[in-house]
Amino acid sequence: MQVLKTGNRDSLPHDVSLSIPSLGYSIANLQNKKGEIPWHKQGKTDPWDLVESAMGLNISGYHKEAMLAFEWMKKNQNQDGSWYSSYMNGEPLDKTLESNMSSYIATGLFHSWLITKNTEFLKTMWQTLKKGIDFALSLQTDRGEIFWAKSPEGKIDPMALLTGSSSVFMSLKCAISIGLILGREVEQWKKAFKKLKYSIQKQSHVYNISKSRYSMYWFYPVLSGAIVGVDAEKRIEKQWNKYVVEGMGVRCVSDRPWITMAETAELVLALEAVGKIDLAMRVFSWIQDCTYEDNTFWCGYTFPDNTIWPEQKISWTNAVVMMAADALYSLTPASNLFSHKSWDDFIYTQLTN
Length: 353
Known about the structure:
By secondary structure, the chain is α+β, with helices and mostly antiparallel strands.
């Protein structure tokens, strides 16, 4: 079954090509024997970014290490399907239970399957994925938005975040796709998917506007495919100058002079998703010199003083840079994971029927 269409792009630029092995190695080198991948040396681990790092491992050919990361997720899942927000050396650090962190494993597993076609591994992870998705959907309202978290005491925080709900939207697409691959029942997920899509497209007022200073609030609805077509292009164009510094990259937050590689790479993914390939390549080119001597990428830097901050080498930053390179230059069969056009196939038809 061909789930996503493949495209042809020009060959990967020499400097980026040199970076891919270094980026993969940097993540694998952080991983401990149990599969946990912290942000950096002596850093914390969070489930969303661990999955992101596993995706980077798969792009760079570290498939066994990626599987080990997913096994860590399986072994550390809470009974209700959630994960804690962060861990330190395998022990819970922040016991908040976030909806987008419980669901993102579906995106990582679908990405893994697109590259490896390891259906047997999907089968072993199905219950973990299902429980994670069901936890996220337990926080969905009748209107469709998804509350962001439960407290450690089990109290739901009645606040919906546009970025988080958009991430869950992407994860739902991938979870339903996996369900179809495995022949599992996904009708309730499809209903939840439609409600969430409507919410993101038509009910923006229900989402916490105070988070709009974050650039992810701007492009995640497009990156996830919740907003597509002309509406997606208008959303990107309308607030471009608020978040983008020409020739440099994307601000993490609109009111601070801090460019981050992860947000810049994610914007590249969003631009590629809507078919703006030339613009995506131009934005990606802005950060190609933002690397250490080992070819791994900075987390970010401030301007106009050009101070690298923070100085740690961040696992998920390097992962998402690889994802952007893959999207632009078709390095793996998962290169079109976020492409809106590539979801116009049989499986995406199943999501909307």
